[in-house]
Amino acid sequence: MYSSSVDISNRGTIMKVLIFLCSFLLAMTAHADTYYIEAISSNKSESILLGHLSKVISLSYIDQGQTITANKEQADWIIEPTLLENEDDQYIINFSKFNNKLKSKKAVFRNNLSAESAADIFTVSQELVAKSIASGSDDIDKINEKKQKESSFYHLSDDGVHNHFYAGLGVAGSDKIDGSDKQGFAWSVGYLKTLNQNLGLKFNLQGVSLFETIGYMGSLSGGLQLYPFRSKYSPYIAALIGISWTNSGDLPSPFCIPNCQDPRISGINQNGFGTDLSIGYQFSRSRRINIAVEVFYSLAFYDIEGSSPETFGGRFVVLFDPSYILPKRKSS
Asked: Is domain 8-28+161-323 annotated with CATH 2.40.160.20?
């Protein structure tokens, strides 16, 4: 009986790469306005106080989920803060907010608050930061929406996504199905239900058949598919969970070429839970028939000869909207 040890380092490397790619794509989905803070204008205040106030203003925007940039051209908004000190040693802080995308000299937000002492300046400035963020955000959203609509090549309209059946075919490798390094062909069929432009519900049936033996691994799973971009051409990640089954056969495969060796273990059938992860790129999502390419990794949550079966490989996928293929009913 052949005994296979679990290659923990190899599996760990694969999982680290997948986790990194998933985290990178998810990070791209986050959106925050970008601010450029002008130097604070003042009539009397000391430079040390202005330096501390400038840091507090920048950190306040960051705490509110916004981004601060040192490049004025890259900013969505420009903030011009002013600190005035009157004869009674009171302070007046003024914020002016300008839309940098429109290159407008007209402030979309202008407000000032008074501070009784230097200690109150920082609290007042944080209040002005919150008010400035709430003002004018719709303008940036409208500008971004306009830019997307002007780009007919990339823009995905609200009704531009469809539900799709799909079929995929590719190659895969595995060193855990029959106890030795083998390659095979991978196939998948399923259904992708569109929830919105960034998210889909995926149901997947897939299998990997080794070339030299009847070793086989299949799964039936469901989960979510995430698109980080609301565009016709977009990468995606999918995370599915379901049932998995593995057959480590002891007979040659019909695809076996002459003189190939039989597996080194007796036939074992095992099943249980498993997960399927994939990262891909889909072309022309707005079309009723489109294509995608993806890499995948499947892992079973059970052992065969002390090792969890796993496969990884790549597939070419064709997606099609069934309503486009089926004949339309004629209204009576």
From this structure: yes
Fold for domain 34-147?
Rossmann fold (3.40.50)
| Burial zone of 120 (CB within 10 Å; 0-12 exposed, 13-18 middle, 19+ buried) | middle
Beta bridge partners, 257, equal none
Sign of CA dihedral 66, 71, 76, 77: positive
User: Which residue positions in the chain have pLDDT lower than 70?
Assistant: 1-32, 44-45, 136-161, 175-181, 212-214, 248-268, 324-332
Task: State which H helix or E strand residue 125 sits in.
Answer: helix 118-134
At 275-315, the pLDDT tens digits run: 999 999 998 777 788 899 999 999 999 887 777 888 889 99
d(CA 77, CA 181): 56
pTM exceeds cut of 0.70: no
Q: Domains of the chain: which residue ranges? A: 8-28+161-323, 34-147
> What's the rounded Cα separation, in Å, for the pair 78 and 36?
5
Q: Taking the alpha carbons of 264, 268, 273, 276 in that order, is the dihedral positive or negative? A: positive
Q: Give dist(CA 298, CA 188) in Å, integer.
A: 12
Which secondary-structure segment (H or E) carries 20? helix 8-29
Nearest residue to 18 (alpha-carbon basis) of 299, 297, 307, 303 = 297
